[in-house]
Amino acid sequence: MIDLHTHSSASDGSLSPEDLIRAAKKEGLSAIALTDHDTIAGCAAASAVAQQEGIVFIPGVEIEIPWEPGEFHLLGIGLYRIAPSLEEALRYLEEERHQRNERIVQKMQEMGIPASYEDIRQGIPGPVGRPHFARFLVERRIVKTKEQAFLRYLAKGRVLYVPKGALKLSHAVRCITESGGIPILAHPLSLYVSWGKLPGVLEELKSQGIRGIEAWHPTARVAECERLEKLGKNLGFLITAGSDYHGSSRPERQLGRTAGNRIIDDHWAAPFLPSPAKNS
Fold this sequence. Notes:
Elements: E1 2-3, H1 17-27, E2 31-34, H2 43-53, E3 56-65, E4 72-77, H3 84-110, H4 117-121, H5 130-139, H6 146-154, H7 169-178, E5 182-185, H8 198-207, E6 212-216, H9 222-234, E7 238-241, H10 276-279
Parallel strand pairs: 1-2, 2-3, 5-6, 6-7
Antiparallel strand pairs: 3-4, 4-5
Helix pairs in contact: 1-2, 3-7, 5-6
């Protein structure tokens, strides 16, 4: 059992990178990729613990790409030699995230919600994101649940929504490939492209450097995943599977399991495993 899509407290997961690896060991995983949003800050610590625990560690990242009407998330899996281009891009995204968060706080104040950036950041070891604003709204009893916070305030098009900093696809693909990684389209149904148009869209993305699609994701139904896998294979893509694990913030997602609670088999990891060539 393995997992190719997980998050730690270095972005919006609840577990530290070290505890994520320990949890993976407890669940019986043989390999795990850490793919935090816009950062590789947790990879060194996760790799060290993985070596101690006897788990294969695959460094990765998840980057947002501008897209309408849905969302386009690009996984970079197998970042065994970090290029200066990727480091520079992630610094840019970190600053963009900071500015976005300040704008959300400003919007909250304009609505009469007493808040400061320090209030939001309190007790958060990693970067601040919308889930932390959702938590704040729950703690201040403005909403009852995090889900309600997104539906009313933080989701795309809602009053507190501010677009996230993103990289152009060509830029992100270059950064990932220069770092030895493989660019993978995460949860393709988030693009909000109809099934009739999806083959053409995927072919265009392949021509721009996307090498694989995450056909298996827990937000999709099993039948949809099977359809995506078949389509991806017909178009010559690598096929991946992940849990998109976030820990206690999304307890329905379990390490090593994907759509339909299916176990993510070891064979999915083969294209991303480390080798002497990848580390040179």
